Amino acid sequence: YIKPFILRRMKTDVLTELPEKIETRLVAEMSEAQQKIYMAYLMQAKEEMRKELADKGFEKSQFKILSILTRLRQICCHPALIMENYSGESGKMTLLEEVFKDAIEGGHRILLFSQFTSMLGIIRQYLDKQHIEYYYLDGQTPTRDRSDFVRAFNGGSRTVFLISLKAGGVGLNLVGADTVIHYDPWWNPAVEDQATDRAYRIGQQNVVQVIKLIAKGTIEEKIEVLKQKKKALVEAVIQPGETFVNKLTKDEILQLFD
Q1: pTM for the complete prediction?
Q2: Which string of b and e fits 171-185 if b means at least 16 CB within 10 Å?
Q3: CB 6 within 8 A of CB 237
Q4: Which residue has the higher pLDDT, 45 or 250?
Q5: CATH topology classification for 11-26+90-215
Q6: Considering the chain, what is the average pLDDT of its residues?
Q7: Least C-beta-crowded within 10 Å: which of 19, 71, 107, 243?
C-alpha cells in the first residue's frame, strides 16, 4: 500500500517572469534582561518536559510540548508577551526598529507578519510613536475593511502593513510591498512561504526582500536548523492534516531544549 501524497509545483517552476526574491536571516542578540528571563524559563521548561514525558509518554505530551515551545518563542519576540510589568528591551525589537528605519529611508514598503497579535500591538506602539503610518489586519478585521486596506496599500497609501499570520497569511494580494518581514519564524516553511507570496506573486514589479528575524542562541535558531534539515521532506510531500511539529521525533524535540 502506497500512501497518497501531494507534489507541490513551485511558483518559480511555473512563472518565469517574476522578479528576484532575496531571502535574508538577521540574528538579534537578546537584551541582558531578556536573556536572564529566557534562561530561567528554559531551565523550568526542561524540568516540566521531563516530568510530562515520564508521566504521559511522547505521544500524549504533544500539546504540552507545543505550549512550552510557544512560551519560549514569545520570550524571543519580547518578554512583555508573557510578563505584563516587563519594562526592559527586546533585542529583536531593537533590530526591527533598525530594519524599519533603513527600509523606509530607502523608499521600500513593508509587510510584517507575526503569529502573536500581542507582539503586533507592541510594534504598533512603536510605529505610532515614530509617526509612521500603517495598516493593521488580524482575525477581528471585518472583511470589507480588509479589501479596503489592501486596495489602499497597493495604491501607495502608507508604508507598513502589519498582519497576523493566521488571518492574513493566505488570500491577500499585496504586490504594493517589496519587503516582507517575518518577525517570529513559523514552524512550517510552507506557511511562511504562503505569507511571503502575498507580495511575491504575479503583478509584482520589484525585487522582493524577505527578512527573517531570529533571536541568537535560542530555540529559534534550533528550529531554523531543523526546518532546513526537514525542508526537502516538507516541501516535496505534504500529508493533509499534518504539521511540521508532527514530523519531529522525540529526540529532535528534546534537542531543542539542549
Answers
A1: 0.88
A2: ebebbbbbbbbbbbb
A3: yes
A4: 45
A5: Rossmann fold (3.40.50)
A6: 88
A7: 107
